[in-house]
Amino acid sequence: MNIPRPSRRSVRQVPRAVIVLAVILSGAARAETRSAAPASTVFHACDGAKTNSSVSIHDDDGKQKWTIKLEGASCKIDFRMEGKARFNDDFTDLVSLPPDGSFRIDVTSDGERRELEITPQRNGLQRTWKVNGHEQPYDDAARTWLGSFLVELDRRTAVGVDQRLPNLLAKGGVTGVLAETAQMPSDYARNIYYSKLATATHLSSADVVRVFDQAASIGTSDYYGAELLKGLGVHAGDDAKIRAAMFRMIQSMTSDYYRAESVRQAIGSGKLGAREVDFLVSVLQDIDSDYYKDDVLKQVLAAGSSAVTEADLLAIVKAVAPTKSDYYRAEMLRHVVTHPAATDPVRRAALDATGGMSTYYREEVEKASARR
After folding, report:
1. Conformational region of residue 133, where left means phi above 0, alpha means psi within -120 to 50, and beta covers everything else
2. Is there a contact between 114 and 78 (Cβ–Cβ < 8 Å)?
3. What CA–CA distances, in Å, run from 309 to 140, 334, 341, 345?
4. What does residue 5 show for φ and ψ, rounded to 5 degrees?
5. Does residue 276 have a pLDDT over 90?
6. CA distance 232 to 245
């Protein structure tokens, strides 16, 4: 798969956006590889039950205004920044602020309070560092704490993606980026990284498979999983490995709506192979909604026409039989009995599955079976 590589400038371009996020600071992701950045407990102390949480990130042509407030049983975070700030490449330190800019962090975690205020001066940035209300020298420990805070902030909001992503790629390639996304507790931030990764460098088929498999294994929410399938799935074409990874991601979903939408995306305009049909029949069995079960069934039978077997149709009948709605049960059974692969055993099973249905809908299935 070939995705064109843009210039470095396009990677770092910051779009106009106002993002208000209230839930991206919570959750937990399985860390596959330890990051080079120092571990932080600042945000982790606020994970779980929170009494107050709000995030406003305003970025308009580089003019930034960030306000983050988070409060829990054992933590309180108040972070405010204004002005066109510039950070270092790995997003662990502030490099510059405009004359009218400001940067302030006030964090109380497990009974200990840390405050950092950075103000622009003629000769550079002035940093005032306090621990439990007492001013302290801004030393290596303070620098490490700030670096941890900024990296953890990015892992939840992706505010530093335009600095960190090129740096991660330069140091470790796609593997380095995926090692970092594995540590992100926010689906939102992780998907921003996935999306920008696809435009920042060439992704091989194996790379795309790794992205899908990581997202599925971490437990990405159905919404962001579907968004990822839309973003990267359009490049799958007939690549069997990418399509298999897309189906694995669909299998990890729990929402019938997103399953159906994602099946449509994964199938595209192509034809299904035998293994793909088998996989989607298993997905069909897990769908509770009659409407979406019917929708997925029609997609599978249409796209997998030549690959559908008698065993597949019998499995479909078994999945359809418990359907409570006579309308949808009859609709799906009619699709089965009129399929080119339908055999006498399939038709008998379909007719047996009409038990308990109203006379009208049972006869509809019988008519369809007889026509076949």
Report:
1. left
2. no
3. 66, 16, 6, 12
4. -90, 120
5. no
6. 11
